[in-house]
Amino acid sequence: MSFKKRRLFLLVLCIFFTRCSKLYEKTRNISKSTFQEFNYESSMAKSILQCGQRCRITEGLCNGFWFENESKICHLVNLTYLENPEPKDDSVQIYFDVDQLQNINMICRGADHCCHRSYGSLCKEGEGDCNDDEECAGSLICGHNNCLKYHPVGDYWDDEDDCCEPACTPDRPCGEGEGTCTDHSDCMATQELKCGVSCLDEQYFPRELFPNNLLSYGSEDQCCYRPCNSRYRKCDDLQPNCLYDEDCNIGLYCHKSRSSRYCADKNECLNGEAKYYCGRNTQCYNTAGSFYCSCLSGYESFVAYEGCKDINECALGSCGLGELSCVNWNGGYRCLCKENYETCFDETQCCDINECIIQENPCPDPLSSNCLNLEGSFTCQSFAVLIKNNVPQTNPSFAEGDLLIWDPSRIIFLPVCDDMWDQPDATVTCKWLGYNYGYSTTRSYYGYHEYLFVMDNVQCIGNETSLWQCPYLPYDNCGHYETAGVRCYG
């Protein structure tokens, strides 16, 4: 601080009659021109005490006075602020009401000790000259040779003046729990700190770790904090600003690079602990923050630290109806099939051979030249057939089953859908097959299931000689449990 500057002199004057009733402080923190602007009365007085008494008896109007000792003139004033007088302006020595010093504004222009106010408010940001942090308001601190950041050179301001400034700045970033900050750049980037949490938030700043925050900061103050912190907020996968592995949730670690730090997934399947947990005959799958174990194909019943056991597919009948024999081994099996079946799906099932397709002329008889493939066999029919439990029904006096009709356009037997299927339809069908009469059935009553149908919404009157003569739809909206059927009597 410069020694050329004016200092504040304080004396106390007690104005009294029988006892001290009013205190005034002596100060030169007012310019002559400013005093004259607020001066409302000037008169002769015998002494400084008499001048002070005049100010006291006009309480509410007068808060200070200036007594010119040589001329014996008493000047009364009602000031709204005190100031460091500008260098071009002379100061005057006045006495000011100490009770009003608590609320009076102070205009600082760089004079020494301007922030040292015995009764008034402390200096705000950019005000000075200050000596130490206690002379600054709130959480501000007294800077060093920094006033020219706030003021142009002039008045009493020079490069040696110290002004109050925020504790956290980009040039002097704060650590965790320190404030107040206004931007992320005010916080230590090397500690992955950010600005934006109240200094009094005990979730981020527990009282036992930051005991001075309650005394140092107000409710509006923000402090630097760590977004990822093992004490109060662990981060998830890909969340930034961790400092240590412990700042991340279980199964994650703090990935550190030159440009960033963030919580990243730890692939547990690459370490021995996860493999030991999964056991034999398993596959380990990594997830964000964890992992899980799955049985390999052909194995089941996972047990931690043991693994999975073999599935005996042969005991489950996995080969199907065409099974001749089945060979099981750890993790797999193989099917050997009966005649008219072949292995399929990598020899894990026995599938029916469609003789109607692979044989050159399976049905040479012209009266029954249409081939109908069945499970494990085939049959030759004329135009229609009743199927019950995969067996064609040919009894001349009575037959029952789900109805299949030869579709010449597709060259295949297909079922009839049971939508609107009723008694007239059954009567026409049974006479068409050579019987006298019959009754209708629905819902694939005899076990035939198919997704493709030859006709739907059949609406016979009853005197037709075949279903093809009845009104019907050549397309359908039917499911595989909707095959129409009949019971026919000779």
What gyration radius follows from the Cα positions, in whole Å? Answer: 52 Å
- Distance, first to last CA: 128 Å
Overall pLDDT: 87
Fraction of residues in helices?
under 10%
The tally of strands reads 30
- Arrangement of strands in the largest sheet: 1-2-7-4-5-3
Mass-distribution shape: elongated
- Classified by CATH, the class of the largest domain is Alpha Beta
Number of domains: 4
Major β-sheet, in short? 6 strands, antiparallel
Number of helical segments with 4 or more residues: 6
Question: CATH homologous superfamily of the largest domain - what is it?
Answer: Hepatocyte Growth Factor
Overall structural class, as computed from helix and strand content, comes to mainly beta
CATH topology of the largest domain, anyone?
Hepatocyte Growth Factor
**Beta-strand percentage?**
25-35%
Question: Could you provide a short overview of the structure?
Answer:
With 490 residues, the chain is mostly beta strands. It contains 6 helices and 30 strands. It folds into 4 domains: 12-160, Hepatocyte Growth Factor; 270-310, Laminin, CATH 2.10.25; 320-353, no CATH class; 360-489, Mac-2 Binding Protein, CATH 3.10.250.10.
Itemize the secondary structure elements and their pairings.
Elements lengths: L11 E5 L3 E8 L4 H7 E6 L3 H10 L6 E5 L4 E5 L3 E3 L10 E4 L7 E3 L33 E2 L21 E2 L28 E5 L14 H4 L5 E4 L26 E5 L4 E5 L6 H7 L3 E6 L2 E6 L3 E5 L3 E4 L12 E7 L2 E6 L3 E4 L4 E4 L2 H4 L11 E5 L2 E5 L2 E5 L2 E2 L5 E10 L4 E4 L7 H10 L4 E5 L43 E5 L1
Parallel strand pairs: 6-8
Antiparallel strand pairs: 1-2, 2-7, 3-5, 4-5, 4-7, 9-10, 11-12, 13-14, 15-16, 17-18, 19-20, 21-22, 23-24, 25-26, 25-27, 27-28, 27-30, 29-30
